[in-house]
Amino acid sequence: MSVADHAINYGRIDADILRTMQPPGRAYFASLVLILGGLALGAYAFSVQWRLGLGVEGYEHPKLWGF
Fold first, then answer.
1. Does residue 59 contact residue 65 with C-beta atoms inside 8 Å?
2. Between residues 52 and 44, which one has the greater pLDDT?
3. Which residues are within 8 A (CB) of 32 and not within 5 positions of it... i.e. 6 or more apart?
4. Which of 65, 45, 46, 47 has the alpha carbon at shortest distance from 55?
5. Can you count the helices (H) and strands (E) in the chain?
6. Which of 66, 40, 44, 65 is CA-nearest to residue 54?
7. Alpha-carbon distance 54 to 52, whole Å?
8. Is 23 helix (H, G, I), strand (E, B) or coil?
9. Contacts for 14 with CB less than 8 Å, ≥ 6 apart
10. For the chain, domain boundaries
11. Residue 62 and residue 48: Cα distance in Å, rounded?
12. Which residue among 22, 50, 52, 57 is the one 20 to 30 A from 3 at the CA level?
């Protein structure tokens, strides 16, 4: 393959730009589900900590509340 095979022209630029407007694939949705699942898990952990306090982490009141 020579450099001429990879020449940039307006047709290729248009095709590259239009390709970004296509619907996302399965990998996008799989990663989106993983990210949202991690976010939900973090929100749940935060809510448990909010309701039960730092005792969930093993801190005893009032020794380490400042940390």
1. yes
2. 44
3. none
4. 65
5. 2, 0
6. 65
7. 7
8. coil
9. none
10. 3-57
11. 19
12. 22
